[in-house]
Specification:
Blueprint: H1 2-19, E1 28-30, H2 31-38, H3 42-54, E2 58-61, E3 66-69, H4 71-77, H5 86-89, H6 91-101, E4 104-111, E5 114-121, E6 136-138, H7 143-150, H8 154-162, H9 172-185, E7 188-191, E8 198-206, E9 212-221, H10 227-248
Antiparallel strand pairs: 1-3, 2-3, 4-5, 4-9, 5-6, 7-8, 8-9
Helix pairs in contact: 1-3, 2-3, 6-10, 7-9
Length: 249
């Protein structure tokens, strides 16, 4: 039993190392940086890194002695189930939406109590919102979060509000009122809820069965996206989301 616990712990630590590369813009990390992120001694991390490198999940840059994700990660990604096919299927439509409105367009799926950005088309403007694909964000703040939470099953909303990581700055009763407003008007907006200077509008994408399968958002600087502008863009996003829903089937 003890050996099994040690084996499971080693797997958990190896996965924690891989998850370090999903944070912010961390495309390559040193041994010291990884050890600090996961709170382990460098000698332990070094052994795990060596194994992950041998298996192809990480590769090491000899020049900088930093690690980055290896080719095995990309090989695995090609075998993802159909749940992630919208990322490729909806990309042309997202690009057209970006070109029409001039701002960054993102696509999100809900994963338990988080949202995951599975696709993004960056604005071409000099001052723009840069959206990292693969980023995991909480459902407590942000336009897309409110859309995904509003159309989630009631039990998910209950767990979300009871989550210990719920931010103290967000009033639960006010949040619930916002979710009701989302289902009433069919879109959500946010102003500097998660990032200073950023605003966003998001709408649900429903499949042919009627269930919401994703959230489509447009984001940019508050200097260009006033509340009135976001309300105008919400109409356009709804039309685009309806077309995307038909495409996804």
């Amino acid at each position: 039993m003890e050996d099994r616990k040690l084996t499971v712990r080693a797997v958990e630590r190896a996965l924690d190392i891989l998850l370090c590369f999903t944070q912010d813009q961390d495309y390559d990390l040193s041994l010291t940086e990884i050890a600090a992120k996961i709170g382990l001694h460098k000698s332990t991390v070094h052994r795990l890194l060596t194994t992950l490198e041998e298996k192809g999940f990480l590769q090491r840059d000899e020049g900088t002695d930093k690690y980055r994700l290896g080719i095995r990660i990309w090989e695995l990604s090609t075998h993802l189930p159909t749940l992630n096919e919208p990322a490729a299927l909806l990309l042309p439509a997202m690009e057209r939406l970006r070109d029409r409105l001039g701002e960054t367009v993102s696509l999100y799926l809900r994963d338990n109590l988080e949202r995951v950005r599975i696709q993004a088309v960056q604005s071409r403007q000099a001052i723009r919102r840069v959206a990292q694909i693969g980023a995991r964000l909480p459902l407590s703040v942000g336009a897309s979060s409110k859309v995904l939470a509003a159309y989630a099953p009631p039990e998910v909303q209950v767990r979300l509000l009871a989550d210990p990581s719920w931010p103290e700055t967000v009033e639960r009763s006010q949040y619930l009122e916002q979710l009701k407003e989302v289902t009433r008007c069919g879109y959500a907006t946010s102003f500097e809820e998660r990032e200073p200077g950023a605003a966003a509008v998001a709408v649900p994408i429903a499949g042919r069965s009627g269930g919401v399968v994703a959230a489509l958002s447009l984001s940019g600087p508050v200097s260009r996206l006033s509340r009135d502008t976001l309300e105008e863009y919400a109409v356009i996003l709804k039309e685009a989301a309806a077309e995307m829903g038909l495409m996804m089937g």
